[in-house]
Here is the input.
Amino acid sequence: MDTKKIIESLSPNEIKILSYLGEDIDDICKKSHLDKTSVIRAFEYLGNKGILNLVFEKKKVIEIGVNGALYRKKGLPERRLINLLEEKRIILIEDAQKQSSLSDDEFKVSLGVLKRKSFIELKNKKIILSANKGELSKKTDEEIFIEFLPLDFDSMSDEKKEVMKSLQNRKDIIRIKEEKIPRVEVTELGKQLMKSNVKESNLIEQITPGILKKDSLWEGKKFRRYDVNSGVPAIYGGKRHFVLQAGDYARKIWTEMGFKEMNGDLMQSSFWNFDALFTAQDHPVREMQDTFFINKKGELPDKKIVKAVKDSHEGKIKGLGSKGWQYEWSEEEAKKMVLRTHTTVLSAQTLSKLNVKELPAKFFSVGKCFRNETVDWKHEFEFNQTEGIVVDRNANFRNLLGYLTQFFKKMGFEKIRIRPAYFPYTEPSVEIDVWHPERKIWFELGGAGIFRPEVVVPLLGENIPILAWGPGFDRMIMDYYEIKDLREMYKNNIAQLRKMRFWIK
Here is the structure.
């Protein structure tokens, strides 16, 4: 846009302040006959046109408070008490409060102030005036301070700041306000326009019915140019947290694949979190280094299930060909409460309630889990996991790979890798990796496998193939939103959340 077109796009208020750019905002207001709000708005318009750069600097201003405004008219409470004492010289404390008409707080503060200034003495429940007339006739530092409010904090002397502190401790006498003071930096274009001596024009600002009815009002005249490319403030609509959005998307995928959702408590007994999943009671994963234990005992489920799990651990279930873990299983250990370390606990609970007549069945969950991890850029003590099980007499390992491939493709990962792994409750067991095309690396998302008979038989009553998986969810979210540090997902930074795009793959 050339200079002529810019001039034709200026509003009357922009033209009014143009020649005063670089001066103090109060002076601009006086010379342009505009209020401060109108001037700042004109600054913003000129900034959009590249005429100036608008910078806001924070400034601390000391203003008069509600009580301060009252005291400035009536006098500070201590002054009203002094006036009474000048008449009486000596007076009972009780009588002084009544006769001064001060509130309890005002009276107590006044006594403290006057005693600190050595104006009075307190003896035998009496107030004795000790200051002379010359001292009393002078205005106190506090009285002088409130007379001159408002004051710029940065320009105040150390003595005034001390007075301010003493008043700050008293109710609503002063208040400290932070203002944003605009500072204008005129650009080369702005300097050029200022030299042009731009004056108010007869450009038509707005088309009205009256203008259109009378030909003489618009024929042959120019209309003010409007810049349709001018920037506008960003508007941020309400939306769910991006982590919750990702969870909702995963739910949608599993539901579309015919799965039902499993739900359960974050706090679980060791029985469901470990024992039901054939994790030995002396397994390192149960130690405090890995698990958050709760100082509480949980309840065990039906005795039949408890006995079946006990027999599984001790190798007493016939027909499985399993030796168990070769130890004496403890109910007390199983009652210990923990913050669940995986959502697989929900799979165990679901299987214990499932009727084999209802097969085949497919279930999923999306939920929060907890591990006693050292927090860094890629580890947190809480994380999100998506769980899935398929209970089907005809299910096999190939089906497992098919479900996983389909899910991760829908989550945006075209290339996945399955490699052998070990878990106490699945056999065979695999780890799931996905390929990151930009970083050119594989990264692990979680484990999967087919539940061992030692898990299935105690919970379901017979040995039926159960496909199971429980990949972590957070790394997928980090990849999608290009988050470098896992901790950024839980800071709830409003500026960050506003800019986050919706989860759409």
About this structure: Residues 64-157 form a domain with the Arc Repressor Mutant, subunit A fold (CATH 1.10.10.10). DSSP finds 23 helices and 16 strands in the chain.
